[in-house]
Design a protein that fits this description.
Helix content: 25-40%
CATH architecture of the largest domain: 2-Layer Sandwich
Number of strands: 23
Shape: elongated
Largest sheet: 7 strands, mixed
Number of helices: 10
Radius of gyration: 28 Å
Oligomer: single chain
Distance between the termini: 67 Å
CATH topology of the largest domain: Chloramphenicol Acetyltransferase
Number of domains: 3
CATH superfamily of the largest domain: Chloramphenicol acetyltransferase-like domain
Length: 484
């Protein structure tokens, strides 16, 4: 037989490492060419990796949670053919430019988008984690559930005397406790040794409920015992429970998307001199337009929100103020004006802030823009945004209004020169002037817009005119017919 070793591919974009997020196969599984076997997280996105050969999975060489360098062996495959063991050439992640594999046999299956590139072979294990066979991959539902905090309001189990606790199946067998990665993370966050948890899942697998029930019982008994020894009377357990169950402090390694975001934001904040301006506007007519579009047959299958109107308004405002859509080239000492709009939409995800962008948004109709925003949002929510979708942006919108926030001073996305902040839309008293010039107080939909810009190439006049044009369209979307 021939055992082939698959190494971590080069993700491109200057990235040199990735974290193992989820294995989709186990030793003994049969795989075909292009089957997805692994999900990794780079500093920019989650990526699924296909296998370039058919055969049987012999061994998983790295664990979920490990951060490893490009070129590190990650899985070995028995292709069922005779011959010497051979490591795989390090390919590139799907979507990157392909290159011929070095030394590959002519009959070898080569994946589209894969090519050879030398990489490091050192492997770094997560601190405190020993190498061991990888548990079965979790479902997306379990990943979401595991990431959620334990509800503080959940009623603790009553303290009762019981016989000696049952010996956990996994511990009794003398092996490593069986649990899926999200459950292991939950146990780690709660400071629980899985070997002490009694499993109730099939084949002795420890479930999330097993961990939370164990945590509740340990916390209640521990607090009660402290109270007994201190005053001789069992005090109510809830009185001394911390707001978060488990350890008093939790440390999260800075890596992946969050690490890249932090570096980019620090670089932007201390490189580009930021200026921020605000404007408060009556967007009642925009809300009326949104309601009409929701009832339109053309927009039946897409989500229509005020963000869509703002996105279209931004494209029109850029056409009137093209200097906003430019960048500062320090090396060439030039201002580079972009005659296209790749519109970035900042998205908060469980793995950190990402800014995917809609390519050539300036050429899209309102319906096409709505479809693009919907697809971008869904992809980001699932953590499937690819590096190419986050590069090349020219202007960004950050929508803090979805959190009920009125406005903010956003930091410019690296490689761009301006960012628009969209605040919450609220019903407020507003002075309305009728056709005869009479003023009256009315209840209107009101919001705030803010724009931060790089003062090296955008002066106050240009930034103010751009913001004023945005406000004019949101105040009266019919203005788009005049400027469009």
């Amino acid at each position: 037989m021939a055992i082939k070793t698959f190494n971590l591919p080069d993700p491109g974009e200057g990235l040199v490492e990735a974290e193992i997020v989820e294995w989709k196969v186990s030793p003994g599984d049969t795989v075909k060419v292009n089957d997805m076997v692994l999900e990794i997280e780079t500093a920019k996105s989650l990526v699924e990796l296909p296998i370039p050969w058919a055969g049987t999975v012999k061994e998983l060489l790295v664990e979920v949670g490990q951060t490893i360098d490009v070129g590190t062996p990650i899985i070995s495959i028995d292709d069922g053919k005779g011959g010497d063991d051979a490591p795989a050439a390090v390919p590139s992640i799907p979507g990157e430019k392909a290159a011929p594999a070095e030394g590959a046999a002519g009959s070898e299956a080569i994946l589209v988008g894969y090519g050879a590139k030398a990489g490091a072979t050192a492997r770094r294990a997560r601190k405190g984690m020993a190498a061991a066979p990888v548990a079965a991959a979790p479902t997306e539902t379990e990943q979401v559930a595991a990431a959620a905090p334990v509800p503080e309001s959940a009623a603790p189990a009553p303290r009762v005397e019981s016989p000696a606790p049952a010996v956990p199946i996994a511990a009794a067998a003398g092996g490593r406790p069986k649990a899926k990665p999200p459950v292991r993370k939950l146990a780690k966050d709660l400071g629980i040794d899985l070997a002490s948890v009694t499993p109730t899942g099939a084949d002795g697998i420890i479930t999330r409920d097993d961990v939370t029930n164990h945590a509740s019982g340990a916390a209640v008994n521990g607090v009660a015992a402290q109270a007994d020894s201190a005053v001789g009377v069992a005090a109510p357990a809830i009185a001394r429970m911390p707001f978060g169950a488990g350890e008093r402090e939790t440390r999260t390694p800075i890596k992946g998307v969050r690490k890249m975001t932090a570096q980019a934001m620090v670089g932007s904040a201390f490189t580009a001199p930021h200026v921020t301006e605000w404007i408060t506007i009556d967007v009642t007519k925009t809300m009326e337009l949104v309601d009409r579009l929701k009832g339109s047959r053309e927009f039946t299958d897409v989500k229509v929100t005020p963000l869509l109107v703002l996105a279209k308004a931004l494209v029109l405002a850029v056409k009137r103020n093209p200097g906003m859509n430019a960048t500062w080239d320090e090396a060439a000492q030039e201002i580079v004006q972009k005659n296209y709009v790749n519109l970035g939409i900042a998205a908060a995800t469980p793995r950190g802030l990402i800014v995917p962008n809609i390519k050539d948004a300036h050429a899209m109709t309102m319906l096409e823009l709505a479809q693009a925003i919907g697809q971008l949002t869904a992809t980001a929510r699932e953590g499937r945004t690819q590096p190419a979708e986050m590069s090349g942006g020219t202007l960004t919108i950050t929508n803090v209004g979805v959190f009920g926030v009125d406005s903010g001073t956003p930091i410019i996305n690296p490689g761009e020169s301006a960012i628009v902040c969209f605040g919450a839309i609220r019903k407020q008293p507003w002075v309305v002037t009728d056709a005869d010039g009479n003023d009256e107080i009315a209840i209107r939909h009101v919001t705030q817009l803010a724009v931060s810009f790089d003062h090296r190439l955008i002066d106050g006049e240009l930034g103010s005119r751009f913001l004023s044009d945005l406000a004019a369209i949101l105040a009266d979307p019919a203005q788009a017919l005049v400027w469009g």
